Amino acid sequence: MVKRVDLKTAAPADGRAGTDASAVHAHLRDAILDGKLEPGEIISQVKLAEQLETSRTPLREALRMLQREGLVEGEANRRVRVSSLSLVDLDQLYALRIVTEALAIRLAVPLMTAEDDTLIEKAVEAMDAAAAKREVGRWEREHRNFHQLLVSRSGARTVQSAADLLDHSERYRRLYIAHDSQVFAVGSAEHREIAAACRERDEQRASRLLGRHLLRTAVTVMATESPEFEPRAVRVALRSVDAGKEPPAPAPKKRRRRAPRAAPPWRDDSGT
Fold first, then answer.
1. Are 28 and 62 in contact (CB under 8 A)?
2. Distance CA 73, CA 41 (A)
3. 3-class DSSP state for residue 13?
4. Rounded to 5 degrees, what angle do the CA atoms 177, 92, 232 make?
5. What's the CA gap between 233 and 246, in Å, rounded?
6. Cα(94)–Cα(89) distance, rounded to whole angstroms?
C-alpha cells in the first residue's frame, strides 16, 4: 500500500517544491532526513509529482540523485522506497563522522577566536535550555549548530563533508533520543568538555573527546536495537583518531522489560 504523505507542510509558502531537479531533490531529501517520509515507505512517483506540483522529469532526476546518496531505492511500477535503517550503514556512517569531524576540529581549533568561543558556549547553553523543557526539535537545531561551529574554521570542503554526514545521521540520532532517557544529561557533559578543550586551544583533546562522543552515540543506538551487533567500523575509526588506543567499551545496560513495540524498519546486514 502506498501511503499518502502531506509533504506541503515542509514546502515553500506557495506549496510548490520547485520545478528544477535540485529544488525537488532538496525538498525530498529534507523530508526523508526529518522523518516525514519514513524508512521503508513506498511512494508512487505519480502521486509524488501531484503532491509536489512538479513535472515528472525533474522528479525522476531528483530521485536518481537520492538513489546515489542511498536515501531511496527503485521499485517496480514507477515507485520508490525510502531506504531502511541499517546497523551496518549506521556503523559506517558514524565511522566516517568520527574520522571527518576529528580531523576537522583539529584543523579548526588553532584558528578559533574569542568570538568562536562565545558562539560555542551559547550553543551549549541553548541545548541545555531546550533539554530542560524537553523541546526536542529546538534541541536538534541547537545540536546541529554546535557541531557545525566546532568545524567551521576547517575549510570549505571539510565543512561540507561534515555537514553531509551530519544530515545523514539525523534519522539515527532521532532513535538515540527516543531510546535513551539520559541522552540530554550525558550529552550536555560531553558537549561542555569539548567546548572547554576548544577554548583551551587543545586540538588533540578536542579531537579525542569529539570522536568518543560520536562513538557513544552510535554504540548506544546499536546496543538498543541489536545487542549482538559488533560495531567494528566505529571502533577502528576511533583507534585511528585516538593514537591507536583501544576505544572504551560502553557501560553494560540493564535490560528493562518493556511493552512490545512495532519492529523498527531496520536491516541487520551483518550476516549474524
1. yes
2. 10
3. coil
4. 95
5. 13
6. 8
Instruction: Kindly state whether residue 164 falls inside one of the protein's structural domains.
Output: yes
Q: How many separate domains does the chain show?
A: 2
Range of the domain at 116: 87-246
Identity (one letter) of the amino acid at 221? V
Q: For residue 20, what is the DSSP state?
A: S
Residue 219 and residue 119 share a domain? yes
Within this chain, do residues 105 and 190 fall inside the same structural domain, yes or no?
yes
Q: What is the pTM of this model?
A: 0.76
Do residues 219 and 113 share a domain?
Answer: yes
Asked whether residue 167 falls in the same domain as residue 234, the answer is: yes
Tell me the C-alpha distance between 83 and 67, whole Å.
9
Q: With the CA atoms of 158, 159, 162 and 164 taken in that order, what torsion angle do they form, in degrees rounded to the nearest 10?
A: -110
Q: Please report, as a single letter, which amino acid is at residue 162.
A: A
In angstroms, the CA 19 to CA 17 distance is 7
Q: Which residue has the cell 533539554?
A: 131
Task: Give tens-digit pLDDT for 212-247.
Answer: 999 998 998 888 888 899 999 999 999 998 865 555
Position 214 in a domain: yes
H/E segment holding residue 255? none
Q: Are residues 203 and 111 in the same domain?
A: yes
Summarised one tens digit per residue, pLDDT across range 73-101 is 887 677 899 988 889 999 999 999 999 99
- How many C-beta atoms lie closer than 10 Å to residue 255's C-beta? 7
For helices 136-151 and 183-199, give the axis angle rounded to 10 degrees.
Answer: 20
Residue 19: which residues within 8 A CB-CB, separation 6 or more? 54, 55, 58
**CATH number reported for the structural domain that contains residue 242 in this entry:** 1.20.120.530
Q: Are 24 and 18 in contact (CB under 8 A)?
A: yes
Give the alpha-carbon dihedral of 193, 194, 199, 202, to 10 degrees: 100
Measured distance CA(90)–CA(87) in Å, rounded: 5
